[in-house]
Amino acid sequence: MLRPAVFLDRDGVINEEVGFVNHETRFRILPGVVEGIKILKGAGFLCLVVTNQPGVGLGVFPEELVMALHRRMEEVLARGGAKLDGVYYCPHHEQAVIEAYRCRCPNRKPAPGMLERASCDFSIDLKSSYLIGDRGIDMETAGRAGVRPVLVETGYGKGEWLYRRHTWRYSPVFVAKDLKDAARRIVAEKKE
Questions:
Q1: Strand partners, 3
Q2: Tens digits of per-residue pLDDT, 61-74?
Q3: pLDDT digit string, tens, across residues 138-167
Q4: Closest-CA residue to 191 (of 45, 9, 38, 7)
Q5: How far is it, in rounded angstroms, from Cα 99 to Cα 53?
Q6: Is 125 marked active-site?
Q7: Is the dihedral of CA 93, 94, 96, 101 positive or negative?
Q8: Which residues neighbour 40 within 8 Å (Cβ) at sequence distance 6 or greater?
Q9: CA 82 – CA 75 distance, rounded (Å)
Q10: Residue 187: domain span
Q11: At 126, phi and psi to the nearest 5?
């Protein structure tokens, strides 16, 4: 049986957008994230993180830091009662300085590879799923994967919506203040 999911971008949605998170002290969970994930999980959604991490390929930080940050993120969220079902990331970049990471990867957003992979791993119904992000690239990823795009005003969201939305191929189904607001609106939409 297929299940609905909410895919969550990481930087700017779950944690503060600070550019490259190149040290654990720069990783700070945003207000309302724990509550938002709990709302989504309570409504029967799987919650999965999908994030580009090109800093690995660009030589800004090691892949081990990404994995350590994700373990920490999952621990902090779980302490608040918000359990993620999975975390997917892409360390690749076409201009990576580390050759092993230099490629056009089907998992790098806006390509839908991470969502498609998660769909297979978790038997997800993409048509009844959402992607919450703070950038046009997230809206593009959602559209390509056939999930409903939602923009949050945290991270780059407010500026992207104000100055860049005219360039987007896929528009969000709605714009929310933050993850908690987005979760409430998704659950309300599910009930309709």
A1: 124
A2: 999 999 999 999 99
A3: 999 999 999 999 999 999 999 999 999 999
A4: 45
A5: 15
A6: no
A7: positive
A8: 6, 47, 183, 186, 187
A9: 9
A10: 5-191
A11: -65, -35
In this predicted structure, what is the pLDDT of residue 39? 98
Query: Rounded mean pLDDT of the chain?
Result: 97
pLDDT at 190: 85
Give the pLDDT score at 77. 97
- Tokens representing residue 20 in the block: 């490259």
Q: Which two three-digit tokens encode residue 165?
A: 């939305």
Residue keyed to tokens 């997230």: 138
Model-level pTM? Answer: 0.97
DSSP 169-184: SS--SEEESSHHHHHH
Q: Which of 11, 134, 138, 181 is catalytic?
A: 11
Q: Could you give the CA distance from residue 28 to residue 58 in angstroms, rounded to a whole number? A: 23
Tell me, yes or no, if 181 is annotated catalytic: no
The candidate with the shortest Cα–Cα distance to 151, out of 134, 171, 129, 136, is 134
We report the CATH number of the domain holding residue 157 as 3.40.50.1000
Predicted confidence (pLDDT) per residue in 7-25, tens digit? 999 999 999 999 999 999 9
Return d(Cα 16, Cα 10) in angstroms, integer. Answer: 9
**For the chain, how many structural domains are there in total?**
1
